[in-house]
Design brief:
Length: about 575
C-alpha cells in the first residue's frame, strides 16, 4: 500500500498544499514551524477520520487543535494505491463527527462510496487507529513502542483468534472489575474494630452496672433488715405504750374514783351535818311551839279560871293536849327518822371509806404509771418510713439498671450479629476474590503462555536490527509483556534507565518488529516525524542505513528540519 499524492485545503496552519509521493523512501525537509506534525496528522485523519475528543493532556481534541487557522473548508483529499487499484479519499470535517463528509472514489471504475461503515484505515490495514498510531506513525513527541490487545494478538500470530482473545481480555477485565467491586464491599478492619470496641465498651458497661446492681442489692438487703428490726422495735414500743396506756388509764380511773369517793364522803358528811342541823332546828321549833302552846294553855286556864269557864277550858285543854301530844309524837318520829338517816349516812361513809382505802391501795401500786411517751415510737416510725422510702428508691434504681442492661445487651447482640455477619461476609468475599485472582492468574498465564511461544522469534528479529547499530544482541531482550529489558551486572532492568539515544533506537527497532508482525493484511506506509534528533553521528549513520533498507519493503514518509538528520 502506498500514498500517491495529497491535497490539503485547510488543516491547522496548512492551506492549499499539494504533495506527491514515490515508492520507497520519501523525504520532506522543512524548517521548524512549517507544519510537519500537522501533515502527519492530516494523513492519519484521511484514513481514520477524527473523533470528537482524544486522550492525552497535550491536546484535548484533535478536531479543535487542527481547526483551520485562516478559516475556510476544513479538510482535503488523498490518493493512494492498494491491491493494484487507485483510490481517492476526500474528507471535509465539521465541528462534530456527525457533520463530517466522506467520499471514497475508485478511479478504476469511478465508483463513489460515501458510506464509511468502519474507518478506511481499519479496512485497509486490519488495525484500528490506536494500533496504527502506536506502530506506523512515529511522532517526535513520543514513539515509544507499546501494545494494545489487538496488536498483542497480531504479534503472536493469533489475530485470527482475536475474538477469543478479546473475550479473554474482556473476561479478565470483568473479573478485575468484579474483584474491585467485591473489595469495595469488604467491610474495613477499622469499622469492625470500631464495632468490637463498642461491643467491649458495652460489655464493660454491663459488668459495671452489674456491680452497681450488686451494691444496690446489698444496700437494699441492709435496709430490708433494718426495716424488719424497726418493725419489731415498733411492735415492742407499741406494746409497751399499750401497757403504759392501760396502766396510766387505770391510774387515772382509780384517781378519778378516789376523788369521786372523797366527794361522796364529803357530801355524805355534809348531808349528815345538815340533817343534824335540820333536826335540831325542828326540835327547837317544836319545843318553842310546845312552850308557846303551854303558855297559851296556861293563859287560857287562867282566863277560864277567871271567867269560870271550866268546861270550855277543859275542851280547849284537851284539844291543846291532843295537839301537843301529836307534836310530841311527830317530834319523836322525826327524831327517829333523822337518827336512821344519820345511821345510813354513817354506813355509807364507812363503805365509801372502805372503797377509798382499797382504791388508795391500788393507786399506790400504780403510782409509777406515767403518761405514755410516744417520742420513741415517732422516731421509730420516722426511721421506718425513711427506710421504706430508701427500699422503694433502691428497687426503682435496680429496675432501671436492669432495664439499662437489657438495652445494652440488645445492642451487644446487634453488634455481635453485625460482627459475625461482616466477618462471614468478608470471608465469603475474600474467598470469591481468591477464586477471581486464581481465575485471572490462569487466564493471564494462558495469554502469557501463548505469547511466550513467539518471544524467541521476536527477539531474533530485534537482535538482527540492533546488530546494525553494533549493539550486543544479548544485551537487550523483549519479555512476554513487550517490555525491553537490559542485561546488567545485577540482572535484568528496564531499558528506561538507558540514554535517550539508546531508548530511541530500541523503540524504533521494536516498532519495526511490531509492524512486520501485526500488518498481515497489507503493508502500511510509515510516517516518521524527525525521530532521530537524539542520536549521535555514529548512531545516526546506522539509523539512516537501516531506514533505507526498510524503505525497500515499505513506503516511508520521513520529515526532518535540519541538515544533520537528512537521509538523502
Amino acid at each position: 500500500m502506498k500514498i500517491l499524492q495529497l491535497h490539503i485545503e485547510n488543516f491547522g496552519k496548512l492551506r492549499n498544499i499539494d504533495l506527491n509521493f514515490n515508492d520507497g523512501f520519501n523525504q520532506i525537509y522543512k524548517e521548524n514551524g512549517w507544519g510537519k506534525s500537522t501533515l502527519i496528522f492530516f494523513i492519519k485523519a484521511m484514513f481514520y477520520g477524527m473523533s470528537a475528543k482524544t486522550r492525552g493532556e497535550e491536546y484535548k481534541s484533535e478536531r479543535t487543535r487542527f481547526m483551520p487557522w485562516q478559516g475556510g473548508l476544513y479538510g482535503g483529499n488523498l490518493t493512494f494505491e492498494s491491491n493494484n487499484k487507485i483510490y481517492k479519499v476526500t474528507r471535509i470535517f465539521d465541528k462534530t463527527p456527525e457533520g463530517d463528509k466522506f467520499e471514497l472514489l475508485d478511479k478504476s471504475t469511478n465508483e463513489i462510496d460515501c458510506n464509511e461503515i468502519k474507518p478506511l484505515g481499519e479496512s485497509l490495514f486490519g488495525v484500528g487507529v490506536e494500533s496504527f498510531s502506536m506502530s506506523a506513525l512515529f511522532s517526535q513527541l513520543n514513539f515509544k513502542s507499546k501494545l494494545n490487545d489487538s496488536m498483542s494478538a497480531s504479534l503472536v500470530g493469533l489475530d485470527k483468534y482475536q475474538d477469543d482473545l478479546d473475550k479473554v481480555e474482556r473476561a479478565i477485565k470483568i473479573l478485575k472489575d468484579r474483584k474491585l467491586k467485591l473489595k469495595k464491599e469488604i467491610v474495613g478492619k477499622d469499622e469492625i474494630n470500631n464495632k468490637k470496641y463498642i461491643l467491649n465498651e458495652d460489655k464493660s458497661q454491663i459488668l459495671y452496672i452489674n456491680r452497681e446492681i450488686d451494691n444496690l442489692k446489698k444496700d437494699l438487703l441492709k435496709y430490708e433488715e433494718e426495716n424488719k428490726v424497726l418493725k419489731i422495735q415498733q411492735n415492742d414500743e407499741k406494746e409497751k405504750l399499750s401497757n403504759q396506756e392501760l396502766k396510766y388509764q387505770e391510774k387515772v380511773n382509780i384517781e378519778s374514783k378516789i376523788n369521786e369517793l372523797h366527794k361522796q364522803i364529803e357530801e355524805e358528811s355534809k348531808d349528815k351535818s345538815e340533817n343534824l342541823k335540820k333536826t335540831n332546828t325542828k326540835s327547837k321549833t317544836m319545843i318553842n311551839f310546845g312552850l308557846i302552846l303551854l303558855a297559851l294553855i296556861f293563859i287560857s286556864f287562867i282566863i277560864v279560871s277567871i271567867l269560870n269557864l271550866l268546861n270550855v277550858f277543859l275542851c280547849i285543854s284537851l284539844i291543846i293536849a291532843s295537839f301537843v301530844t301529836f307534836i310530841i309524837l311527830l317530834y319523836i318520829k322525826l327524831k327517829k327518822r333523822n337518827k336512821n338517816k344519820e345511821n345510813n349516812n354513817q354506813d355509807k361513809i364507812i363503805i365509801l371509806n372502805s372503797q377509798l382505802q382499797q382504791n388508795q391501795a391500788l393507786a399506790e401500786t400504780l403510782k409509777n404509771a406515767i403518761y405514755p411517751d410516744r417520742k420513741n415510737l415517732e422516731i421509730l416510725n420516722s426511721k421506718q418510713v425513711a427506710c421504706e422510702i430508701e427500699i422503694v428508691k433502691l428497687n426503682h434504681f435496680i429496675k432501671e439498671k436492669e432495664k439499662q442492661i437489657l438495652e445494652i445487651e440488645e445492642n451487644c447482640d446487634i453488634s455481635e450479629n453485625f460482627i459475625a455477619n461482616v466477618l462471614n461476609k468478608n470471608s465469603q468475599i475474600e474467598n470469591k476474590i481468591k477464586l477471581l485472582d486464581k481465575t485471572i492468574l490462569y487466564l493471564t498465564k494462558a495469554k502469557e503462555n501463548v505469547s511466550s511461544r513467539f518471544v524467541g522469534e521476536i527477539n531474533q528479529d530485534l537482535s538482527s536490527l540492533l546488530s546494525i547499530f553494533n549493539i550486543d544482541k544479548d544485551k537487550y531482550v523483549v519479555d512476554n509483556y513487550w517490555n525491553v529489558l537490559e542485561q546488567s551486572a545485577i540482572g535484568m532492568k528496564s531499558f528506561e534507565f538507558s540514554s535517550q539515544g539508546y531508548k530511541d533506537i530500541l523503540s524504533f527497532c521494536q516498532r519495526i518488529v511490531l509492524i512486520k508482525k501485526i500488518y498481515q493484511k497489507e503493508k502500511p506506509f510509515l510516517l516518521l516525524d524527525d525521530i532521530f534528533v537524539n542520536l549521535d553521528d555514529e548512531m545516526l549513520t546506522f539509523a539512516k542505513k537501516l531506514l533505507l533498507d526498510i524503505a525497500k519493503n515499505y513506503q516511508i514518509i520521513y520529515i526532518c528540519c535540519n541538515d544533520r538528520c537528512k537521509i538523502i
